[in-house]
Amino acid sequence: MGSASASSLPTSAGAGENLVLILDFGSQYTHLITRRVRQLGVLSLCVSGTAPLSSLAGLHPRAVVLSGGPHSVHAPGAPSFPEGFLDFTADAGAHVLGVCYGMQLLMQSLGGAVEAGERQEYGDMEVEVTTRSSALYGEGEAGKRQTVWMSHGDEVVKLPEGFKVVSRSVQGAIAAIEHQEKRYYGLQYHPEVTHSPQGIETLRRFLFDVCGIKADWKMQDVLDEEIKTIQSMVRSDEHVICALSGGVDSTVAATLVHNAIGDRLHCVFVDNGLLRYKEKERVMSTFDSDLHLPVTCIDASEQFLSQLKGVKDPEEKRKIIGREFITVFDKFAQMLEEKIGKRPEYLVQGTLYPDVIESCPPPGSGRTHSHTIKSHHNVGGLPVDMKLKLIEPLKLLFKDEVRKLGSILNVPESFLKRHPFPGPGLAVRVLGDVTEGNALEVLRQVDEIFVQAIKDAGLYDTIWQAFAVFLPVQTVGVQGDQRTHSHAVALRAITSEDGMTADWYYFERQFLVDVVKKICNNVRGVNRVCQDITSKPPATVEWE
Length: 544
Prior knowledge:
Radius of gyration: 25 Å
Largest sheet: 9 strands, mixed
Number of strands: 20
Mean pLDDT: 87
């Protein structure tokens, strides 16, 4: 799980009275805590749990959540909050909620005891409220049970002085604790996941009843703040380049920056040879007719494909693409300098929070508490010697939040509903060497048939993302009474809220029958179609 550094947060991120700070200790669910808090109308920001205390200077959280994590608090090198952190929260008057590993870490730090449990608790588990009155559960709940999601091998066996147990699992493990006077609270289970049906109510009670936070965070506030930030960052005589991909993220980012600095924004759309079927023509038409953004189209397909020739490693492909994009942008900046007499200083990108999460090695940058999933070409794939400074106005937002922001900016709804498309394009959907044979052309045709069928069936807005994948294998088939040895392709369609977790979409049998028939009859060189029915996790959305 990645986390933003405090230095990368908006200038007023900690200035409000209702900030919730989430310390990430590597749980796969940490992003869900961030989302649940935001869904309740409260600004939440996630930072590395092991970041130095100095990096939190200027933040004034009303509440701090210590996330779960995969480690035991007794393991060598187990992550911990920085020295002086509890004094920091006390001075800020912040309430602290430890979740799973976070609760165990809090208890150990305050003098309690954590030991390996006699019986580990993973998955659905019932907990029972053990006290008549508690801050986390309210009044008159003693004896009542609720189903929660557990994921722990260790358990708290001794509480620090002044704490009380307010719920236990049916196996007897401590499930929730609190010390109202010192504003410390803990949940051994994960209230943020849907497998804890009443967990959102517990979070709501903690935020509003216990902490006294107000639900005053709105997308309009995000827009206003980002415009102020960009205007203060970019001087009145400076120019900015925006890399448009034709997707929702870069389009919303461009529209936002255009609102902030006007015609000093210069948009560029790069045809890298890795676009979908007729993507360039369709996107450029939309930019002109619907968005009225001034966009320069650059054909760099030969440049990209020549650099990718023979490259099979997906991480290397992403880094090459990131490098070549920057080369194109630098040349575009030089061209603009010759035209307007001033070289652009900044590059706008539509980087989102999930991109940062999957590309960064948090907590703490030691790569020990969670792992980099993959480098996104606009995050982990950027060269260190890049000449342009980055503006990433969306990097703390999830996809659904970006769509809400785009709606406020009057980006056409048809554009906002477009399925996500990866920055590296079809390079991560052709497994192996993208330049081998006619893989790209085959993939474009298959993808077009699949996505158009989804639109014709009225399913496009129901599905988060749908696409085809070209597999580096050939299979034996029979077409036209003749034996064939042709390519296999895969179809993937998922449902999701934010792209961080996803489930595969269940198509009716007849839909798949019709699509497969259309692909095999119309795309020369394909004789086998597979469907990817893997959720995320364990898989990622893209195959590479």
